[in-house]
TrEMBL record:
Residues annotated to bind [4Fe-4S] cluster 1: 14, 17, 20, 161
Repeat is among the record's keywords: yes
Name of the protein in its database record: 4Fe-4S dicluster domain-containing protein
Source organism: Neobacillus rhizophilus
Subcellular location: Cell envelope
Length: 274
């Protein structure tokens, strides 16, 4: 079994150069996107199906009344207990031995439940057309460069970071390093903390943040929806034993649509304007 890894991101060392974005685009052969002006040095408002990692720029007034310019490399967190994996009705999302969470494009049907239920909003759907012109969708996100990990290499974003703001290594070693770094910078950043939310079982992208998570647009305490836990960890295994895998797959598609389709719930409760 492969060793479990963590990508450690120290935002206090980041200078906003965007080399990580370029490296990600190059390695994964992702196309250029035209985006509207963001009003800052930030090029994209968030990750997309064709931009799996975004450098965030945040202007923040500190406790002393001064202005801090904060940066954050934003990509998939690769949760240990991932909501996207639990709500996928096709079992298209899985964990690797490295700790990364990946999407099997051959199984993905573009239902969008993973997009709607990701607490970090890092998954997006991309539109495609087949040879007959029929449209279909696939979910995309950062893979933690799992293909590189399988060859003994590090993620492309990590290898190109010239300030040492990103490191990649053994899970426990990286978490210890993050905790030590927080103690080193507490004098300058009183709110500094390790961001490794336990509500999703911990993550395989662990941050040292200079401020509270909300300052970076992150949820303070993200959790896997209770309905997703009950369905994936209890109802599905029991149902397969009682009904069989094929029947349970049909039941699963129906239940998943009812439980996890947030857009559907909003439409049902909002009435019609027509």
């Amino acid at each position: 079994m492969a060793k479990e890894y963590v990508k450690f991101v120290d935002v206090t060392k980041c200078d906003g150069c965007k080399a990580c974005m370029v490296a990600c685009k190059n390695w994964n052969d992702l196309p250029v996107e035209e985006t509207a002006f963001q009003g800052s040095a930030q090029s994209h408002p968030k990750t997309t199906a064709d931009t799996w990692n975004v450098l965030q720029y945040i202007e923040h007034e500190n406790a002393g009344g001064g202005l801090d310019y904060l940066f954050r490399h934003s990509s998939c967190f690769h949760c240990t207990d991932a909501a996207c994996e639990k709500v996928c009705p096709e079992n298209a999302i899985s964990y690797t031995d490295f700790g990364s969470v990946v999407i099997d494009q051959d199984k993905c049907v573009g239902c969008g439940y993973c997009v709607q239920n990701c607490p970090f909003e890092v998954i997006s759907l991309k539109e495609y057309k087949d040879k007959n012109g029929k449209e279909y969708r696939k979910a995309h996100k950062c893979t933690m460069c799992t293909d590189r990990l399988e060859e003994g290499l590090q993620p492309a974003c990590v290898t190109t970071c010239h300030t040492g703001a990103m490191e990649f290594g053994d899970k426990e070693a990286m978490i210890r390093k993050a905790e030590k770094r927080v103690q080193e910078i507490k004098g300058r950043y009183p709110n500094a903390q390790v961001y490794n939310p336990q509500g999703v079982g911990g993550t395989h992208t662990v941050y040292v943040l200079a401020e509270k998570p909300s300052v970076y647009g992150l949820p303070e305490n993200p959790k896997v929806p209770t309905s997703a836990v009950a369905w994936k960890d209890y109802a599905q295994p029991i149902g397969k034993m009682m009904l069989g895998a094929t029947t349970m797959a049909l039941v699963g598609a129906f239940v998943t649509n009812k439980l996890f389709n947030k857009e559907g719930k909003e439409q049902d409760g909002g009435g019609s304007n027509e």
